[in-house]
Predict the structure.
Amino acid sequence: MEKKKNTNIIFGGLLVLVVVIVGSLIYFANNSGSTTDAKDDLQSVALPQLSTEVGQDEAEVQIQTTAGNINIKLFPKLAPMAVENFLALAKEGYYKDNEFFRVINNFMIQTGDPSNKGTGSKSVVNNNKPFATEISNQLYNIRGAVSLANSGPGETSSSQFFIVQNPKAADQGLTTEKYPEKIIEAYKQGGAPFLDGQYTVFGQVISGMDVVDKIAAGKVTTNP
């Protein structure tokens, strides 16, 4: 999910019309970077993506598109910089009328650049500069995961994000040495585990995956 690559635009213009903040945000941490604790027992860590309930330390937003609405819960405790930047940009209307400019069926859909070319991005955190990837052993690129695009290692994350859409089983080769057993089970329903550890997972679709699938299956045209 490099954020500066011209790829595909949905033919007919399926747009992110507006991002509506549904819940209230009550927690932000000041740290960034990895949030994984090597001492944690992988089989006992909390896995907030596996519940559709929005916890007191989480937030909920709704992405309204011409294909329908997508509700997402966000994880500010586990990806504080990503969530803070996303919500701040949503409040200022940065995502209004953004297209899903990169669409790969059975993989993911990507947006977050008002130019709709995949070359633009914005950060209002980290002194208005791109920020580091935030990795947690509680968050994974299972189907419905919402993750930040980046352009490689270092501080390269900002406004562009993608929703993992792949509906095909992706658990082959995963072991309990590196993954919680419940996440391996979740990957049987789809996802992209090869992205784990490279991109910040900061949210999870809790309703509207049918809309994500509809966008992913739409006709596309190459962005010149």
